[in-house]
Structures are given as structure tokens and as C-alpha cells.
Amino acid sequence: MSLSRRALLRVGGSGLSATALMTPQLAGAHYRLGLGLFDAPNHANLARPSEVVHLLNRISFGITLEDYQEAQRIGWSRYLDIQLDYLRISDLEADQEISTYFPNSQLPKDLYFLHYNSRRSAAAHHARSVSLFRALLSKRQLFEVMVEFWNDHFNMYVSKDRNTRLHRLLDDRFVLRGESGQPEVHALGNFRALMQAAWKGSCMLHYLDGHANTKDRPNENYARELLELHTLGVDGGYDEHDVKEVARILSGWSVDQTEVVFDPDAHDTAGDKLIMGHVIASRSGAAGADEVTELIDFLVDHPMTRNFIATKLVKRFVADQPPAHLVDAVAETFQRTDGDIREMLRTIFHSGRDGREGFWTSQDAKIKRPFHYLLSCLRTLAAGVKHDGYNRYASLYLADAGHQPHGWDTPDGYPEEADFWLHPNDMRERLWLAFYLAKGADNSERGLYVDYLALSKSANTPEELIENLRARILFRDLDPADYDALIDFATDGEPAAAQRAFGNTWMRKSKTIGVLGLMLSSRYFQLR
Amino acid sequence: MSKQDTQEHRRELLTGLGLASLALLASPGARSTGGAARNEHVIVKVFLRGGCDGLNMVIPHGDAVYGEQYRNLRPRLAIPAPDDQSAAPEERSLELGGGFALHPSLQGLHEIFTNDDGDIAFVHAVGPMSPSRSHFSAQAMVERGWDGGDGPRTGWLGRYIEHMHGGTASLNTSAFRAVAIGGRMPVSLFGAGRANSMMTIDEFAIWLPSALDESQVIGKLEQHYATPGALDAATNDLIGGVRLMDEVRPTVAEPASGLYPEGNSFAGKLKEAAKIIKTGARLGTEVITLDIPGWDTHARQAGTLTTLLRELGDGLKAFYDDLKQAGLKHKVSTVVMSEFGRRVAENGSQGTDHGSGGCMLVLGGGVQGGVYYDRWLPLDPDAQAGQEDSGLIDIGGRRHRGDLMATLDYRDVLSEVIQHAAPNADLDAIFNAQRSPGSSPYQPTAVGLYQPGAAKVSPTPRADKNEGELVDDSQPSEALFRSGGGLL
Q1: What's the pTM value of the predicted model, to 2 decimals?
Q2: For residue A43, what is the nearest residue in chain B, using CA coordinates?
Q3: Which residue, of A507, B336, B466, B478, is most buried by count of CB atoms within 10 Å of its CB?
């Protein structure tokens, strides 16, 4: 028995009680047992990942060898601080990739409009591509994870119509990626500033029909979702009257080419607006535009909004069933810092070290959603990606898994909870991806390429193979039963042969593919 | 490029384990001798995601007030009446009788209503009694078979699967007792003990590189996924399902070519559903769910609704014909529902905003064709909100932008479909699960979907109609609507 085997036996034993904290007694498939919306899919019997691995599982789209080594070197806390202060991280590789392959996607608004106005499908395609490339290549992984978080929160379906196709990339750039020039308007900035920018995104106004909402022809779609999905939450205490009043406040805004414009003549000024007992005075003329600023401030100040945002963040980063005390703590940070997103995340990532449930007791409590699963495979495997093939290959999986970037058609965004994602067909897609990548993907190097022999360091015995891939792919220990099963697989049922060289090259290759595929399919890699 | 192209080839997964032994292993209950065999009647649930505009699907043009004001309330969205000579014939709605007419895109359903055996019921002014205008709350509510907030986490079809034989356990251990076509597991199926999701029968397979021994790999996956976790259950259902499907697939019959319309993705899904149903006990399916997305028509609704309704109507007609030809129409009940209807008056963007009462369809042999509702109250936008004799409610207490009020509980429709499909089903366990103490339990009220003479409007009976017993009780539209009240 190898050293690593003994080491993991020890770790495996001690991990049990701690993870059990977050584990429902009867963890079953939710569609099966009906355990419902908030139970974790985790497993009490997995040896816990190290601190660094747990953190990287949550703040990135997958662990690369480089990230792992860097985080190991400087420690999780400092690594987190650097990721939160994302502008300190150079992102040349991702920038260069995008300016090489999608140069027009980076144009200033007016030129962007000129280029894409008659190429709207290309604009939609590039919006997806930019998300895929940045998630794969960016060194600012936490920032990218938060861009995805807000893209779910402020969901806009890129293919709704010709306008959303054109504008989707603009809201991504100018609201979430900080191109507005306002310092706190970005995915890791300040929620108040973000909200003030997000509501008047040119794509958002199209997606939720806000551009068509006028005093004579009210359309309350945007008003409802602004309250229900962006700020207060569905149980936020507003009623149908409030929805109508918000629609009045939002009347008169539309989009001219790429500029968001306010038309005082289309703005409803027939009496003051009353939102949840709060009066917002109607203003005539250009001053009518200020009403919505006041509304957003009112909503951001509302305790239900703090609670709603805190709940979503804790669900994303800790567990589908968010511990109430942690939600309260994050909401408190929201209030204390006036919506500083970084500080809310700090509260989350330092939680659970005091004996109560929190981030540091939640190992493996979340499942990777398909986008994360794909990206983590590609990043961990150091897959070779060619720009013209990447999108197509990613779509092979993401389209069937139902998780294309900007592909969710209703305004609530892709669900966070495991029970939406976890079902047999979803597993089928995951297994397809795992073994497709394990066998090298498209070996012709046209689009996607995985060098599985390099990953295994050309291991020559079953034991070496499993140890090399475990260290390189999983970055964590295997439970003894899983280790034994892999040895059984790699030796074709002769564990005594674990230290003997593979009989021939073909056997070595096929066992490498098999072990790699099984590891990518396993709970160790599906959970985060 | 497709995934299949990227594979060398696919081999059958079946190894030593036969299908019967697998099924037995999967369910401890199956080892005992007591229990009910597979229920041969299949419930097919179609969900129109986004809130279908029931008022333009089944148009109450005979409504005392709404009928007259229809063009005022919906100046750009009104569908011409069946006898509107000013409109082109193909734009006119299709007469049902009694002051109701179908959207012209629903030609297929109209044919079932008039030419076939009248096996379709249109249920109007139906929905939860405590409506929500939030898509997400409303869908969660009706998918769980609930009314109001909270309620169980399981879905109504999940509980149906568990309680379809009353207190008797099912001996059906197929991994396909419930099937979601379309790759997702809808909330309505949460709680179903044996459920699977798939895009198509052919795709329901695990693809592995040819370099690998499939049974060995699958065996290792089963070994790994053997703990009580959600990933484990999904993987095990997948593997069990794939093995069973590999056995059954060679016997699956394709429908006659041309039966299902091309380019209609909903029809494509129904075709898979019919193929599954026709395997009978081999796949052992008792529930199938399908979705059509895209009904949230806030802007420029006319074109969207035309397309969606054609997809719906043509698809259902092909499905019905297929089952009828196979002699299975009496073994399948299809129910079509949405999370809410839409507002009576159009909005400023040639669309309609979220409303409450909507429309449901029930299709299948044994259904007494007709239009059903509880009380039909005039859709008078000038009535005071909450006024007794107005069919409009307005949740916000404001006038003029009212909703069609649901006067019929959507669970009454589901209850009847369930009772027809599985007479011993425990409706109490299905619709009163986890009710909080002190709240009043749901008790079904008869709609009469399967009861001759209960429909408010029935198709003109045909001499060769084999259902028999149908009486012509269609009433003059004006009289019915002016009366302002229902008969139930």
C-alpha cells in the first residue's frame, strides 16, 4: 500500500463529522424523494478537500494547476484578498484572446452599433463567446464568477429578439465589467451603484419591455421584475398597486441606438407615486428622470432587498439551504457598507470557522452547474482550445445541458438549486462530457484537445496512474473504497498487479482514459 | 457536427444483468407479493410556460360585455368572430358554440372537437383560487398542485405516482414510470419514485469511448454512486433506465410518416411520448410531462401566439390521431395548463400583461367534448373591483385593467383526470399533502369532464359518434351569457 493511500485513510476518517453538519439526514435525489428546493446534494462520506481546494471550487470556474500552486504558496486568505481586488490582477491573456478573435466586441458604443447593427446574430454569438472565453482564461476568476452571478440576477435572454441580440454584450460590458467609467459599477463593486446602472441597461430595457412602457400605454413587465427579481424579492411586501406605481415611474424611458433616453412627454406625471407607503413626487419635464433614481435608492435601502441579495449570495457560495444566521450577517454587512459587494463576500468566505454553519463547514455542499462543470473540466485538464472550435464544442454540451451563457429565457435567471439540475438526463450529459474529454476530445487539435497522457505524467503502472491523476485532477484525497475501485478498474480485477507496468501501450492509454473519465464523472469533481 | 459524430460508435450496455432482475433490485417493494400492477392509463401533462393568454385561445366573444367591447379592450389583438365577414376567413376564430370560439391556429383541436369524437374539453376561467401574478410563484404553486403560499415541495404528479393506487403499493418498478420529455425534471414530478428525463428515446444512452469496456466503466460508476445522495440517485436512475431502454428500444415502433408535422418541436416531443406509450408495460410509463416555453407575450403578441398555438394544436392533433389509430386513445389523458392567464385588456405594446384566470385543455377518449366553466361572470371593465356580478378581479384594487377571475379550481380538473386515469388514486394524499394544521383541506368539486351532459357547450352530436349518450345542450350564446351564471 502506498503512502498516499495511508494518508488518505486518515483524512477520510476525520472528515465525516464535520461535513455531516451540512448534510440532511436523508439526502436523496430531489426529484425522487421530494426533499425539495433547499437541500444540499452533498455526501458525508467524502474526505474533505483542503482549504485551498474548497475555496477554489467556489471562487473559480475550476482549479488550474497554476492557481492551485499559487494559492497553496500564499494561503487561502491572501489568495482571496487578491481575487477580491481584481484590478490588481493582470488579465492580458484573456484580453488578447478577445481582441484577437472578437475585436469588434470591444468597440466604443457608437462604433459597436455601426458594426453590429446589421449583424445582430453575430453580436449575440459574440456575447456568448466573450463569456465563455473570459470564464475559461481570465485570471480574475472570482470576478468572472460574480459576473455570472449578476448575469443570473439581472438575467437577459440574448435571443429574445433582435434588440436583445444587439444589446446583450453592451450590458455585460458597461454594467458588469466596469466599462461605464463609474468606479463602483461592476460585478465586485457596490450594489447600489450596480443597481442604478443595471436598471437602465439598453439590453435590460429591451428585454423587459421597459422601452415600450409609456404613460398612455403602460407595460408593467419591467416594474414587476424590478421588484420581484432585482430588489425586494417575491415576498418583499409589495402588492399589485406598487407594481403599477413603479410602472408609472419607469414610463418614458427608451433606447435610441445605444443611448438610453428619457422622454418627459411619455412619462406619467398624473399624481405622485406611492410605493409601499413611500411617496415619490412626480416631476414634470426632464426632472421626471430623477424619479427612478429615487425609487432605486428607496428599494436598495429596503431591508427586504438586503435580505434577498444576502440570501442569493449565500445560496451561491455556501449551500442551497442557506443558514439563516449567515444570511443575517451578510445583510448586516450590506447595511454597514451600503452595499459593498466585496465586503459581503468577505463575510461569507470567513464564515463557518466559529463552530456555526458557514462557508468553512460547507465542503461539497454544492453541485457544479453545467457551465461550471464544463469550464472546470477544461481548466483543470488544461485543454487546448482553438477559438473557432471552442464555442461549437462548448455548445455540444451546454446546449443539451440547458446552460448556454445568456440562454435562459425567463427573467429569473438560471436556477441555483441542485434539484433543478440533478436528474438522469443531466447526468447523462455530464458523463458524455467527462469521457469525451478524457479520450482527448477532438484529437485532431482543430477545436478542443486534451493531452491525457501528459496529465498522467505517462504513468506506467496502475498505482502511478491513479496517484498522478488524483494529484493533478482532483487535488484531494480519495476515499479508500473509491481508490480500491479504481485500482480494480485499472488492473482489470487484479489488485496485485497495481505496481506492475501496463502490458502494452494500448492498455496504458485505455486505462488512462478510463481513470480520467471516472474521476471527472465522480462526486469529487461534480461537487464544489 | 453532432455529438454522435464525435463518437466512434456506441455499444449496448446490457451485460449479464437482465431487465427483470434489475427492476427487482431497484425496488424493495417489488419483492413482496401484494401490490398493484402498472396502471395502464397514462397521464400526459403539457405546461405552457410563461402564462398563456386563455382569452385569445378560447375566445368568449359571446360575453355580454366583453364580447361587445372586445375590440375596445383589445383593439390590436382581437381575433375576428367566426361570422365576421369583414375579416379574411383564415383570420376568423373557429366556432365552438355557446359564444365561444377557438383561435384560428387551433384548427387541429377544432377538428377533434367537431369531426372526431369530441374528445376534447376546453375549461375556462380556471386557475388557483389564490392567484399570483409572479411566473415563478404561480408555476411553483400549480406544479405542486397547491393553492396559495408554502405547501409541499413535491409535485402533484410526483404524489400521483406514489398514491395512484390509494394505499396499495405499485409493483411497477420501471425507471420510466414518469418521463419528462425535454431533458428537465419539472417540479410537478418532484417526489416521483421512479422518474427519468430524456430528449428522445434514441439519445437515451450513455456514450463512452470505444477504447473502454462499457460494462466495466458502468459498473465502477454504480459502485461509486452507491451512497444516499442526489447525484447517486440521478446516476442510478440513468444507468437503470439505459439498461431497460437498450432492451426495449429495438421494439419501439415509429409512427406512420407524415403523421407528425415537420418543424414543430412540440410535435416532435409528442411523437416521442407516443412511442413511449405504445411500448406499454415494456417501459411501464404512467406519466409523461412536456413543456412549451414562450407564452409570456408582453409585446407584439399576435404573431407569437399564432405560432405557439399552431405548434400546440397541430402537435396535439397528430398525437391524438396517432393514439387513436393505435387503439390507445382511451388509455391516455392529456391535460394542458399554464401558470396564469393574461389581462383582459391589451397593454401598450400590443401584448398582454400577467393575469389570473386562464384556460385548460383536457384531451382523450372518454372526455365529453365541450366548453366547461363554473360561473361565467360578465367581463365588464367598468364594474367595481370585487363587485359580485363582475367576472373581473383586480388584485391591486384598481379598475380597468382587470383579470379574468378564476371561478373554477384548476385542481378540480386535475382531480377528474386523475380519477379517470386511476380510479383508486388517493386524491387527499395528492392534494392535501403537508397541509398546515387548521387550514381547510381541498375537496374536489365535480366538473363533469367525463360525464355526459355536464359541459356548458357541447359539439353537435354526430350520428356515428361511438361515445353515445351525448345530448345537445349547447345553448344560444346570448341567453347563456346574459344570464351571467353557471349551472354547476
Answers
A1: 0.79
A2: B229
A3: B336
